[in-house]
Amino acid sequence: MRRFQHYIAGQFADGEARFESLDPATGAAWAEMPEAREADVNSAVEAAHSALYDGPWARMTASERGRLLYRLADLVAENAPVLAELETRDTGKIIRETSAQIAYVASYYRYYAGLADKIEGSFLPIDKPDMDVWLRREPVGVVAMIVPWNSQLFLSAVKIGPALAAGCTLVLKASEDGPAPLLEFARLVKEAGFPEGVVNILTGFGASCGAALTRHPKVAHIAFTGGPEAARRVVANSADNLASTSLELGGKSPFIVFADADLTSAVNAQVAGIFAATGQSCVAGSRLIIERPVKDEFLARLKAKAEAIRIGSPLDMATEVGPLATRRQQEHVDRLVQASVSAGARLVTGGVKPEGPGNYYPPTILDCDGISSLSLTEEFFGPVLSVQSFETEAEALRLANDTRYGLASGVFTQNLARAHRFSRQIRAGVVWLNTYRAVSPIAPFGGYGLSGHGREGGLSAVLDYTRTKTVWLTTSDAPFPDPFVMR
Ligand code: NAD
């Protein structure tokens, strides 16, 4: 079995305990992971705190920080095959996807490397004579980062890149489900030459490791990606240290198709939107909202595509849908599907949990027209699409916005005016018009409502890892006046 270690204060070390990681394709233990509890978390946060204020990192210029980030980007690109294979092995995300995604992750580090020396303060036109006042932009402090199992290298890059560009130090908790790629990534951090303590990477369970980290008095900001339940606990923990939070949570994103849409394009985008990453994607377009006259044709084409998907070993380049990351997730998806069927949803395809090893679940389509069911409100985080139809544009919009989430959305129509109208009226952080799942380091990303707050990606993400300090300087040689006379 492979053994992985934590990376704390520039050293690789075993955790306070260990646990086994299971191969999602077979269910067999394949690696031993270190488990951090309170003591490991304390060591990591103390290391990050010392590095922030006392070490070489504190004295480094912004350009030097940028150079280290460029080096890290190159190392990620060079090591992409190893990282991709580990992510596939430990989480079941198919190798086709991990290979493409990790190659692109390098460009996130490059983008933030370039921004490191473009974070400027400002000089204020203050309303007092003989006074200069300026704002310095300083790193916000030690950042606690928490990520879920899916796309961990990507979800951490959108946090680590801007945090390091801004001069912060950090402790990253990899998900207990599939931490191997991030624990391996720590080797690249060391190789890139970041001073010890700047980046600390560990793993452990939410209730112990995650709680200790998010409550820690020396943590200033928490960057969290995960589900709303854990997010609530994280926010409650932050009542102790009053750390600021950014929350990237789940979704129940609408995928709206009008009868005038290019249906071939829309079918392909819907397949990618719900079955890519075996549906374990925060932006999964999990609610198809389709104009009634094209519903039957669209569903027939979608069913044919879904049934032709190659399901298999995630390590096989030909595989299109692999296993879910954990047995727990497989059971969660099946439970929601069976509850939806009991509530009246019509199974168009899939919906039968396979026997045998591995956490597989078939691409599933539920026709939910005219019923109210969990499948329209709950995030499955699996390959399950729920379908509703509409007659009018107003009805389409009402169905789209009928959710407590608000992460992503897709609209397929050839009517430009309508596309613009929807981009204004949909309550979601991302609207894709005649496309889906496009992301870029240059474009901010984040949600409304239960999908969280804060934006990752783009210029503004760097500023979220800074705070301003206001500096006042008198330019007068006159002595400070009598304190009892106001100026
Ligand atoms: P989860 O919320 O159960 O766990 C996420 C992380 O939080 C894990 O590392 C876990 O250990 C940690 N955690 C759990 N309890 C904690 C606590 N009390 N204190 C501190 N940390 C704690 O999520 P999951 O089931 O692993 O992942 C799936 C969820 O993540 C879905 O809802 C999905 O939509 C969401 N997600 C969102 C985005 C986004 O960018 N918006 C991206 C990917 C995934």
From TrEMBL:
Give GO terms: molecular function aspect only. metal ion binding; oxidoreductase activity, acting on the aldehyde or oxo group of donors, NAD or NADP as acceptor
Pfam families noted in UniProt: Aldedh (PF00171)
Q: What family name appears in the similarity comment? A: Belongs to the aldehyde dehydrogenase family.
> Which InterPro entries does this UniProt record tie to the protein?
Ald_DH/histidinol_DH, Ald_DH_C, Ald_DH_CS_CYS, Ald_DH_CS_GLU, Ald_DH_N, Aldehyde_DH_dom
Q: Which classification does the entry list for the species? A: Bacteria, Pseudomonadati, Pseudomonadota, Alphaproteobacteria, Hyphomicrobiales
Aldehyde dehydrogenase domain: residues covered = 17-471
Active-site residues per Swiss-Prot or TrEMBL entry:
E248
The highest taxon in the source lineage is Bacteria
Q: Which UniProt keywords apply?
A: Metal-binding, NADP, Oxidation, Oxidoreductase, Potassium
Put simply, this protein is called Carnitine dehydratase
